[in-house]
Amino acid sequence: MWKHLHPRMLCLLLAWNGCANAAQAGGSGIRHPAEDPPRQQEKMDEADQPRPLPVVTVYGGLRHVFRPVHQQQIDQQALQARPFGTMDQVLQSRTAAHIRSYGPGVLATASLRGGAASHTHMLWNGFTLNSPMNGSMDLSLLPSSLFHSASVQYGGGNALWGNGTQGGAIFLDSGFPDTRGFFSRLQAGTGSMGEWNRAAAAGYLNEEGLSAMVRVMRSDNPNRYRYVNSTLPGRPHEIQEMASQSMQGLMTGARWSGRRMQTTQIHFWWQENDRHIPPSLVQSHTGAHQADHAARLTASWQQNRHRSVIQWRGAWFSEGIHYTDSMGLSSQSQWQTLAQQADILWQPRSGWLLMSGVQLRLLNARADEYSQDRQRNELTGLLSLQWAPPEKAFEINMSARQDYTSGHSIPFTPSVRISYRIRPLVNLHLGSGKNARLPSLNDLYWQPGGNPDLLPEKGWSHDVGVEWNQGRMKENDEGRRALGMESIGLTAFYSRITQRIIWLPKGGGMLWSPENLQQVHSHGLEAWAKGHRQAGPLQINYGIRYHATRSINLIASGPNDRSVGKQLIYVPTHRAVVQLSVSFRTMALHYHHGYTGRVFTTSDHSHSLPAWHTGELGVSWQGSLGRLRAEGHLRITNLLNKDYQVMANRPMPLRHVSLGLSLGVAGKDQSLQTK
Amino acid sequence: MSASDSAWAWLEKINRFKPNKHNPICFIMKHLKYLLIISLAMLWAGCEKDQETPDPIPTEPREQGVFILNEGNFMAGNASLSYLDTQSGQMLHELFLQANNEALGDVLQSMIVHQERAYLVVNNSGKIEVVDMESMERKGTINGFVSPRYMLVVNEQKAYVTDLFGNSVSVVDLVGNAITGGIAVSGWTEELAVFAGQVVVAGAGSGHLYFLDPQTDALTDSLYLGASPTRLRIDAEGHLWVLCSGSWDGSEKPMLVRIRPQNTGLMETFPLPEENSYYSRFDISANGRKLLVLGQDVWMMDLGKNNPTFELWIESGGMTFYGLSVSPFNDHLYLTDAVDFVQRGTLMVYSETGQLLNSHLVMVNPSGFYHH
């Protein structure tokens, strides 16, 4: 039977054997025997014969069946809590990813486990968002309200997700709300930076048959904020006047769920963005301007059979950037991506899952700095196996991937993950995998400096993690009172990247060119806990996450290189986030606190930026009258009024305030809040 | 139930607390030793060395030595001025910051001295800082440039300043410390020199050598040399040497051009040895005998020979040579290694025969010199 699970899930995955009950309880999308408590296990033991694969509704692809050692979900509630925010703000407050932000409305990229922006693989509906030209994705161009769910995978995952997943992956998905019937919503917001934001969403949803929805947004933000000019004597407060931004976007989707266990989906995402790029504190000239545009289309068809799932997915992206400044510079670049992917998931017998897939990806890029249009064709073959015998406490996942690319050979990338239930509520995870990253088109063809002889980066990553998950017991023991802490986990990792591509000066420094030179190893620990407590009428939710990362260069570029053995620049050793939410009837109070340790700005550690704290306090209210819903929120960002810089000479805003109002009609099943 | 009632109920619940294997507090207590181990492991994982302590920075430069111009990182605002006392070997750093309690700016490009005042051209800050030569205290700031590169004093009251994006050579009033005009040229301009009674400007963007009349501030002539003329030097015989760095795509190779003052239209060209390298700097010894040019390595040409050729003088050996200058006082070669361009560089001093005499740690991206 078809079923769409709780919207908290990034993408709904496969359940088998006795796991359908758990899925109906609205919890985890995929249940691993190694994670099930004894009572659940007993049910599994009764299953002698394979059952039909019961539940599959996949936005991001079947490959989500094979989970990494450490993944963090960001539900739609968290995305909607920031209706006019962008993904850099969401990830900064909710995850331990280090967001390298140049300021509001300006470039922001994600660094996971000490990697560069190009080592963080961004995917939308399972397709790569990273620009093939520079290998990274600007998070400040991603309005969080356009997405249904998101998740962060910490650590390498090349075998499943492909090129450029050394540091981890961020999955964004445009799913459908967990409701039925008609729903709609109008939102407006403003704030102390002078912003004026509008958004609307509407849709008609069915479990079977046709569903459709559309989200639109428009944001005009002068980004007029106060900051501290640390380069002047006395560190005066100044007002940013040159960071205005306007953004408009549309996300629409349609789904047809047929009676013959078939689902067809199509999603279209169009967006335009215009922004002035403010000068750094040490720049004299202004007038830099960047216009981005993107049209992205994905489609999928899926059929559930008795013991298999067949899925086809396709994507077409057309994107471009036009940069100009007052000095007469004008640089225009455009690129198109066409991707086709076919996967089949097969359950040959109980406890076994086999997946094979093939993907074809065609890239075309045009830039003023390329001597001609550049193309890259990629063909990928993937094979994954999962063995999770119902009567056993372990689960083994193995994947192997081979990419074929015009002009380059990419190494064979296998991976393995083993989970073992060492206690009823405690699971041990072990993972290991090979990773690789192709040079970006800029690395290869940028004039001047591009190096067409570059080799792919490659390396291995290893994880070991332990997780205590009380929430699973709670799901299956309905009468039990909530116990507070829901899960706590710890993961240790080690990874090594060889042939890392870095741009180095040539011939006296006037010409920069990339080389396969650096060798970097990273190790660290990631700890997290989250919980829920009912205290009288108060609902208390909390979460804490701490990551310690050491990412070190191992190779000297020359005899005077003093960077060997030292932490890479702009990689904080310590990063922690704390979230606390207290709800009382229709009111809720939220507090997010983030800590980022000192980052070095020179590779010999002669210069650094100090550690910084950020606090964010929000209060929200929601009311209803029948199916009519109203919500309001007030948020104070940088509550502690701290002067800090994430990137040198790019001051972040001092304390600022935003507020918003939402009105709408809820669907039949759930409140508007979860739409 | 009110909020205060809830709080009291919560406290009572804590008082009634009984061990329970599913209670997280019990779980934590039971596994305290593991948590301790985990905490220690986190401390280990998070261990990092402290930021290195900067060298002590004395305040006053000595009288005989060389200023080293550290560009700093683009957009990082960490440009700085260092000074090597060639008598004692003492190295001083951050002279401007020490004297003015303010960062110098972004990308220190060049420096000249005129009437006991140093003019520090700060490229990406679009300004020229005017400082007292002894105390390094600021005496003025010339603003209004787009991306200034080099400066040449043409008389007691006036100087010319080239620009990366300005499409003109700025005319600067040295008394009022202000831009008073501009001479339109095409594109990016680099170094300037006085040659044959005129001011010549390397037009890196257009491939031309521009001739300016310092009396009228007019463009009087131009001469096409080749791709990317950037550096200018006058040798002991009054010849003008121009380094053409070549085109980015390699279609035009780098070369040196010699122009005689008697006939500025007659050019002699000298192809450079590593034709696939980008040549960025060259210098000529005070006696005019030796020309050193910087590509990937340092090459020497003996100008005393009839048919001079280049010979390898100093091999880079994995270093990233960035700045080059020959002392006008003793023909010592001052060469810098910028390493990876995101750390402090190294200054190396070579004898006139190419022997390494000493080396010093300087600041980020040392590129220019002023011999004092």
Walk me through the structure.
The complex is a heterodimer of chains A (675) and B (372). Chain A is mainly beta. Chain A is built from seven helices and 36 strands. Chain A has a 22-stranded antiparallel β-barrel. Chain B has four helices and 28 strands. Chain B is mainly beta and 372 residues long. Chain B is globular and about 80 Å long. A four-stranded antiparallel beta sheet of chain B has the order 3-2-1-28. Chain B has a four-stranded antiparallel beta sheet with strand order 4-5-6-7. In chain B, strands 8-9-10-11 form a four-stranded antiparallel beta sheet, with no helix packed on it. At the A-B interface, strand 25, strand 26 and strand 27 of A face helix 1, helix 3, strand 24 and strand 26 of B.
Brief rundown of the structure:
With 675 residues, chain A is mostly beta strands.
- Tally of helical runs of chain B: 4
Query: What pair of chains forms the biggest interface?
Result: A-B, 75 and 77 residues
Assembly status: heterodimer
Helix content of chain B: 10-25%
Q: What is the 3D shape of chain B? A: globular
Helical fraction of chain A equals under 10%
**SS-based class of chain A:** mainly beta
The value of Rg of chain A in angstroms is: 24 Å
In whole angstroms, the N-to-C terminal distance of chain B is 82 Å
Structural class of chain B: mainly beta
Radius of gyration of chain B: 29 Å
> What is the helix tally of chain A?
7
Strand order of the largest sheet of chain B: 3-2-1-28
Number of strands of chain B: 28
Strand residues, percent of chain A: over 45%
Mean pLDDT reading of chain A: 85
Low-confidence stretches of chain B: 50-57
Main sheet characteristics of chain B:
4 strands, antiparallel
